Amino acid sequence: MAASDTAPLVLAIGEPLLEFNQVPGEPERYLRGFGGDTSNFAIAASRQGARVGYVTRVGDDDFGRSLTALWNDEGVDTAGVAIDRSATTGIYFVTHHDGGHEFTYFRKGSAASKLAPENLPYDLLDRAKYVHLSGITQAISVEACDAVFAAIAHLRGRGKVITYDPNLRVRLWPVSRARAIVEATLADVDYFLPSLEDATSLTGLERADDVASYYLDKGARHVILKMGADGVLIADAKGRQRVAGHVVDARDTTGAGDCFDGSFVARIAAGDSVATAVAYANASAALSTQGYGAVGPIPRPEQVRALMHPAA
Q: Which CATH number fits domain 11-307: 3.30.465.10, 3.40.190.10, 3.40.1190.20, 3.40.50.1980?
């Protein structure tokens, strides 16, 4: 479903990566794919019918060209994608074992880590209605973190809707710094989209309601707390609502949270209520766990609707 040229522009800012995902049962074989939380977000939002653009930097290499081709194929506008000839595109490997999956990253000094306030496309920010930000972007370098805060400062007071997923990665930065940066970001965010696992690591709180209260007290306007198979908790100053999870044959949860975020923003951009958008995003994320890799299993709207409204 293509978005019309008059649809609100959804913009993501962040880091793309090439993915090499281990084939289960074949430990020496890896499938080449695509990842990076904000790239996954952009593709998920586009597949759900939103008009999407992406702001990032890639290397002048085959990996960067492959990612750009992917975004073009997926209908993601690349006007905000810069080519950095002094750095390479980051990559990561996913390995699978009985306890789940493990990520190994090669991203230090990547082109995306050189995102900075002075190279943000502010004209593109001005044209966007919805802007999605990530804690990973803030973690990959001081310059990229500054870029996120510069984008927020530019957007403040301009009627934009800002969504934010902390996407905690303890290998990128200490929890203490992540906590401080996340909480400094909250006051200017319309929708805060953490997973319960990340929120517990950041706050030390395990109960969903306690996490929601904590972040509302810290200034979040809406907390959309993702709890995997247990569904989603929606919380704001007016009250709370739980959305049940879906039972699916989950094989790989890589990128499921990003799929949720992109699907959620696509639906609020289409005019859905928060609760309706969350229910849709919850089903979309569940479906994305049924395949391997971050991008391939992201569903289309007809698949999401079928899970939400199965035939009698």
A: 3.40.1190.20
